[in-house]
Amino acid sequence: MPETKIIPSRLAGFWRKFLDGVVRYTLMIMLALVLFGVILLVSGRDPLHSYRDMLVHTLGSTYGFSEVLVAMTPMLLTALAVALPSRLILINVGVEGQLYMGACFATWAALTFPHLPAHLLLPLMAFVGMLGGALWAFIPGYLKARGIVNETITTLLLNSVAPKIVSFFIFGFWHSPMDTDKTANFVPAARLPTVFGTRIDLSLFIGLALLVVFWWFVKYTRWGLEMRAIGGNPQAARRNGIPVSAYLVIGMCVGGAIAGLAGMAQVSGYYGLLLANFSRGIGYMGFLISWLSFGDPLGILIMSFVVAVIFTGGNLLQLTQGLPFAAINLLLALTLFVVLARPQFSGFVRRKTA
Amino acid sequence: MRSEATEGRLVTLMFGQELTSPKADRRKVPDKGALPLLELRGVETRPTGTEMRLKGIDLQVYPGEIVGVAGVSGNGQRELGDVVLGMIPCVRGEKILFGEDITRAPVGVVRRRGVGFVPEDPLSMAVVPFMTVLENLVLTRTGHYARAGGLKMDWRAVHSDAQDAMNRFGFSFSLYVPARTLSGGNLQRMIIVRELAYGSRLIVASYLTRGLDVRSTIAARQALLRARDEGAGVLLISEDLEELFALSDRLIVLYDGRIVGTFRPEETDIYTVGHLMTGSEVPHA
What we know:
The structure holds two protein chains of two kinds.
Chain A: H1 11-42, H2 47-59, H3 62-86, H4 95-112, H5 118-145, H6 151-158, H7 162-174, H8 202-220, H9 222-232, H10 234-239, H11 244-271, H12 282-292, H13 297-320, H14 326-340, H15 342-353
Helix pairs in contact in A: 1-13, 1-14, 1-15, 2-3, 2-13, 3-8, 3-11, 3-12, 3-13, 4-5, 4-7, 4-11, 4-12, 5-6, 5-11, 8-9, 8-13, 12-13, 13-14
Chain B: H1 7-15, E1 38-45, E2 57-61, E3 66-70, H2 77-85, E4 90-97, E5 100-101, H3 107-112, E6 115-118, H4 122-125, H5 133-138, H6 142-145, E7 146-147, E8 152-153, H7 155-169, H8 184-196, E9 202-206, H9 214-229, E10 233-238, H10 241-247, E11 250-255, E12 258-263, H11 270-277
Parallel strand pairs in B: 3-10, 3-11, 6-9, 9-10
Antiparallel strand pairs in B: 1-2, 1-4, 4-5, 7-8, 11-12
């Protein structure tokens, strides 16, 4: 019996897949840039110049690069919050709402226990933040598992509810004496530590670690196997005795918990306070990244980085090239367009790399 | 000569040896003193969509007994299998499995007690097409092969158990390809290995030998009979009356969601059962 075949995956296979993925995503992104270049040309700008500006100011300096990573951090987490339920064919459009609830709960902890030391307060904030996100995700998860309402609709609709709850608490109770739409700055113990003298905070590394855990969990554990079975054929999974309903509820809650953690990281790391309508669509961006990468951990890493570059660089393009902000959305939409055309494209890549 | 061609002779020519299909050496009377493995008492279901409604099903399956379920497709055989498994809730009546009430138990509980299930359409009902055969073999028993509390799976054990079972049944199919690439026959062999080889105490088998060649049909029937001889109870659902008559110790006929007849195969004939299956009256002799 051939020994090498017993473990389904081997390291060599991993690296081959890794390279294949990198090549594929690079080609896709380049194609999107070429298409956007045409639009730049039509509007009378020099695309090469624009791209050079964009890359030099994001990847060409330590500060620019650190800002890319700062922008990437919440997207990493929110994309993961979409990717995990998507393995169970759950479409979690509600990351935005779960993010707000996570931020709301974490802020409650920060404001209620300001005297705790950081090594107690931060884990507490992370925990209640995840709890908030999970509770918010439990509602659609439960309704889906009972076959009452489709989760796509409930998560999407709950998105407009969560920010209003946050606003209610800010305007009603938590706002600082100076402002009406935000809390006072958190105590230092409630701030996530930053590294290398930049604005990069601990949540980037938590996000990266969670990405690895997610990959390992799906690939190697019993629960990952059962999740893949549900994602591949829910009826067969149920017939084979896998508790599908429980997986749906728990999967949704874990997704919500990760989104809640992203919310906690935003208020504790990036802002250091809770601001009404703070998110700027990070949840939706995570949804986009997760679907761009088809829920694949490596894809999430690459795509969230790319989207972060586009965002950070796009701000710059507005200044240097006089482009409207909508141009950034245009570039993102083109990226989505190219990636969704993947069926033909992947065949092309496979032939090239074979 | 065409007139000399019989099924047996063709099979002999095709395989270069004479193959005889196993027949059950029937138990005279199943041991009614023993506790039934499965007992349905007045089970009724409520259909959702296109399902047939089961009406007042009373049924016992005893250890070491094959109960054949005859019926034209769409008269409740599939629903009967599903209600035993727990896929369809029963709205009235009771299900007793191995002496315990499982009327409200979910599929996982029923499975873990030792119920094997061969569905009528393996690709859509039993298999995750893009997962490998080995991964599919493990799906009904993930808990058994989980190590370190579920953090990893013991693929070596899965492999060697599967290899053992294939050797025992005389099957051979690739374990490391996606299940969707298997032929219909190999897929059915895989399901038979998964559901029959690992000591199921009750086996619900629908169209057990559909899509199998002669040799594998024989192997599948032998596997079923061996399981019976080792004390398992079998609910064999089929439209193939010859198979039902060859294997069953007892035969029930389903029509319109009801049991319309219970027979011992040697006391009836294919025509009587056939008539009952179509719902037409049988003239009593």
